[in-house]
Amino acid sequence: MEQARDFRVVALGGGVGASQVMIGLREYTRHQTGVIAVTDSGRSTGVVRGALNVPAPGDLRNALVTLSEADPLLRDLFQHRLAGTRLEHLNGVAFGNLFLAALAQMTGSFEHAVLELNRILKPSATILPVTLANTHLCAELVDGTVRYEEVSVRGTQKPAIRRVFLRDDGVEAYGPVVEAINQADLITIGPGSLFTTVIACLIVPGIREAIAAARVRGATTVYVCNTTTQPGQTDGFTISDHVAEVVGYLGTGSLDYAMINTGVPAAHVVDRHRREGLSLLTLSAAELSRINDLGVEVMATSLIETGTEARALWNKVDTIRHDPSRVGFELAGLVSAVRAAQVAADALDPSEAPMPRGFAQEGQATA
User: Fold this and answer.
1) Distance CA 187, CA 165 (A)
2) CA-CA distance, 248 to 233, in Å (whole number)?
3) CATH architecture for residues 1-37+173-362
C-alpha cells in the first residue's frame, strides 16, 4: 500500500524524541506541529529559568534547531554552549536558551519569542510549547514523599514514581496547540523520558481533552515506545508498563496504537547501555497480550538505528536511538491503512464495516 501524503500531524514530547518523529514524517507531509514540554529544570535550562523567569526553553530550542532549514552556522550558534572560567553559572548554558529568554523580554512574552524563533530558524514543522505557564513538574513517590522540579523527579537512587503533577493551579494548554490537535489526522506521543517529557505534556489541562475530541473526529493516536528503560524513571519497567502509564494519564480508550521496536543492537551495545543502567525493552507474547488488554493495538517492527557509536550528551545518558526514516515509514503506512479502512467502511452497511484498527507487522498477531 502506498504511504499516505499531506496528512496533519501533531507530535507531543521533547526536543529529541518528538523531533525524530517529525524528521521521519517530513518526507510524507509538511503539515506538522511539534508540541514540546516546558517543565525541564536541568542545569542549562534551569539557570535560564531561574534568572529570567520563563518556561523551560531547552527542548523548544533543540526541536527548532533539529528541524531548522536555516543557515547551518545559525543552527550551530543556537546549540553552542558557553564556556569560560569566569562565566560561573553561565558556563555550559546553551546560547539558544539565552536567546529565547532574551527575546521573551524584548517582545514582552514567551509566546511571541517562540513564534519569532520559528520565523528565524525556519523549522520544517511548527514548534510550540505545550503551555505558556512557567510551572514545574512534581512527583509523588511510592513511599509518599514528593519531589519538586523536574531535575529532582528524574533523579536516580530514589523510590519509584507513583504519579506526576504540575506545581501550579491554573495551568492550561496553549491555544494554538489545542487547535492543532483538533485538526490532526495523526497524533504521536513520544518517544522520550516517560514521566518528565511524555507525561509532562499529557498532564497539562486541556491536552487529553483535545486528544479525546480529535479521536471522535477521526484522528489516530500512537505512542512511540522507548527502546530502553531509563534510570530514575522507569527502572524495572516492561513495555506494557510504559503503555499502561500513557493510557492512565491519557484516558482509557484514547490510545489506538503502541509502536514498539523489535530490533536488537549488537551485544556490545546492549552491554554498554546495561552498564549505564538502561535495559533493552523486548516484546513477548505475554507483553503483547497485556497491551491488547489495555485496548491498544501493537505495531511491532525494527525501528532502531544501525549505528553503534555512543553519543556525548549534555548531562544525559545516551540510549538506543530510533531511526527517523523507519518510524516515519511505519507511521505513514498506518495512516494509509486507517484511511483505506475508513473508505471501505463508508462503502458498507455500518453493521458490516471493518474497524480501522488491528494493524500488525512482521507476523505479529493482534488480539
Assistant:
1) 22
2) 16
3) 3-Layer(aba) Sandwich (3.40)
Distance CA 11, CA 34 (A): 5
Predicted TM-score (pTM) of the model is 0.91
For the cut 60, the answer to whether the pLDDT of residue 226 exceeds it is: yes
Owner of C-alpha cell 493551579: 169
Q: Residue ranges of the domains in the chain?
A: 1-37+173-362, 43-129
pLDDT digits 0-9 by tens, 322-360: 999 999 999 999 999 999 988 888 888 666 655 555 444
- Give the residue among 220, 19, 211, 5 at the shortest CA–CA distance from 126: 19
pLDDT on residue 34: 98
- The order of strands in the sheet holding 161-166 is 146-148, 137-141, 161-166
Paired residues of 143 in beta bridges: none
> What is the helix, strand, coil percentage profile of the chain, to 5?
40, 15, 45
Q: Are 297 and 258 in contact (CB under 8 A)?
A: yes
Task: Say whether pLDDT at 42 is over 50.
Answer: yes
- Find all residues with CB under 8 Å of 183, minimum gap 6, and list them: 8, 214
Which uninterrupted H or E stretch holds 287?
A: helix 285-293
Q: What is the C-alpha separation between 138 and 63, in angstroms, rounded?
A: 24
